[in-house]
Amino acid sequence: MDTMRGKSAIVGMATAGVGEAPGFSAMELLGQATVKAVNDAGVKLSDIDGVFAATSSHAFPTMSVVEYLGLKPRFFDGTNVGGSSFELHLLQATMALEAGLCEVALICYGSNQRTAGGRLVSMSEPQWHETPYKPRHPITAYALATSRHMAQYGTRREDLADVALAARGWANLNPEAFARGPLTKDEVMSARMISDPLSKSDCCLVTDGAAACILVRADKAKDLPGKPVYFMGAGAANYHRSIVAMPDLTTTAAAESGPRAMEMAGVSQKDIDVVMVYDAFTINTILFLEDLGFCPKGEGGRFVQDGRIAPGGELAVNTNGGGLSCVHPGMYGLFLIAEAVAQIRGDAGDRQQADCNIALCHGNGGTLSSQCTAILCSEAAL
Fold it and tell me: Domains, the chain, ranges and CATH?
């Protein structure tokens, strides 16, 4: 399992169009992020011979990316398992690099969801067994999981509010975050109800945005100008697509993907300096902290109380502001990686965590469906 540990490194990382980018298509934003990532890596666009992409606007994402950027890759993969695709792409790109199938790999995503329509919708449409109930997709699905967690473990709306407040606290330290400014618990608790028990404050943003990263084999990373961030391990798990087929609404497949990633990386929860989890809704953060082993099952609501995951708390979670307050352009998984890279490189400004060497990124796809965990580290932690 540890044969992939430390075999690849992210040598270029960039975002573009975060928040609102009127006048640009999803592919144009993706292209902007890619050019910036290439420049950050100190390579040429023409050096890219491996392409990994998933988008919410292209049925054949790698073909669209290749055509738009003028690439001629030797290896490409358009696996789309929702917002967790990019954590999985880290593993796939590492395998392709290690196998010699490519030398310079691009992972990329772009969306103009806000300026193109501005609605919180999911690619994973309701399945036939959900449709008769006319869910507001995907919010209704996450509301079901929230309600069950509340009933089973006593989780309260106040606990969900602590997640939203922590995200905003981090966003206020991030100049790139879309939602900044003061936010009180009273404001969160009194926000308009969308799908009981989830209010507007419990739901992720709808923004534009693109991100891209460049990976090479670890031995090549030392020849490039930037500080490399190494792939340490990854794992994936998937039980269902439709929320009504989820075996247990209070336990996600992160309970398997997390341990797989940590086994490959050779680390445990106590080794992780920053945690980036896909917070499409406030319940996600609670579920994933439990399933990834940062607190016992059922204790997530109590775990996030009193600013524990906010700036100054004992566990740094979603230090960019997350999908709740920083950016959420349809699929958020690559932005988890972007923030992890910034923290490990020491480029996170006012939100920078001291001695940050190991970051966990956890992606979520569909309605708590595909779960992919990736662990990144500095050279010192290898």
Answer: 2-116+208-229 (3.40.47.10), 136-202+234-381 (3.40.47.10)
